[in-house]
Amino acid sequence: MSNRRDFLRTSLLATSALALPRLSRAATAALSVSGKVPGGVGARVVSTWDFGVPANQAAWTVLGNGGHPLDAVETGVLVPEADLRNHSVGRAGYPDRDGKVTLDASIMDGDGRCGAVAALEHIAHPIKVARKVMEDTPHVLLVGDGALEFALQEGFKKEDLLTPESAKAWHEWLKTAKYTPVANSENLDYHRTVQNLGMPGGKNNHDTIGMLAVDAHGRLAGACTTSGMAWKLHGRVGDSPIIGAGLYVDNEVGAATSTGVGEEVIRNAGSFLVVELMRQGRSPQQACEEAVHRIVKKRPEATKDMQVGFLALNRDGECGAYAIQKGFTYAVCDVQQQDRLIASPSLYQTTYT
Ligand code: SD4
């Protein structure tokens, strides 16, 4: 316990060391035009991993101007979905075992409305399709060919999402002929990363983006989007498009999202669990910790070498995060602190290999 406290303290210190440059000029302009967040203080957007910083900045151009949190999170996650350097979200995501790029995404409003797509091919912005499922159908989740058909009917363009770089990595992986899907590749050491992903891991090699936002009125929303595990079995669906697993939002309480090995998160209805723990009085930090402990306690051996991380935000704008393994980061943007990258505390203190 005291070790964990020490680590928490270290993480907080690390937070200031990781503080990033201030908001982009566009986002700063959005703030200064209004002077402060319209409607008062308390609006905040948080998201998983380092790529959450530019994504939060995009979301803030909406939230900081008094926009709805739902529009903010959709706008925010479009950034990594479009980023070709990112091989775990949207276009340029690593393909499955058969060389197909299949995308998962979900979006949820704090009033309970939600939409999702899973194993969607050929559409560069699955989060936009998820929102259309929410708004234009009586359903919550569309998958595979049905999801693609729906997207095309809605006017989305069919594209090849496999970039030459991702195809090259897939061909490298095929040489090993080993089925070893990898999540949280940035936590792997260089050699294992090369072996499994066919390219060096590094700063641009991140995972799912889960984004949560609250406005000054306590309205919440969340979005989650990913290409899932590299080299997964064709048809595999992770936690990200499963409401209650990869994402859950409730205006009465707060919101949660997850990253890491989706199977463990689904088994434990992870994000719903975090929100329910907050409903029972836990802080976002305590709720994330308890959810991680629950997952590890159920399968201690299996989870020893695996990453799962949760990020939570309550309706007062307080946030927290916790992961099994070291290396999980999350980005925070609000009117007081602007953009920051924070090292999440974790259960184990060693980076796993
Ligand atoms: C999945 N949770 O498809 C996603 C992958 C991920 O960090 O988040 N990796 O299981």
TrEMBL record:
Signal peptide feature range: 1-29
Pfam families: Asparaginase_2
CDD domains, per the entry: Glycosylasparaginase
Protein origin, superkingdom: Bacteria
Keyword Membrane listed: no
SUPFAM superfamilies: N-terminal nucleophile aminohydrolases (Ntn hydrolases) (SSF56235)
Keyword line: Signal
Name by which UniProt lists this protein: N(4)-(Beta-N-acetylglucosaminyl)-L-asparaginase
Organism: Dyella acidiphila
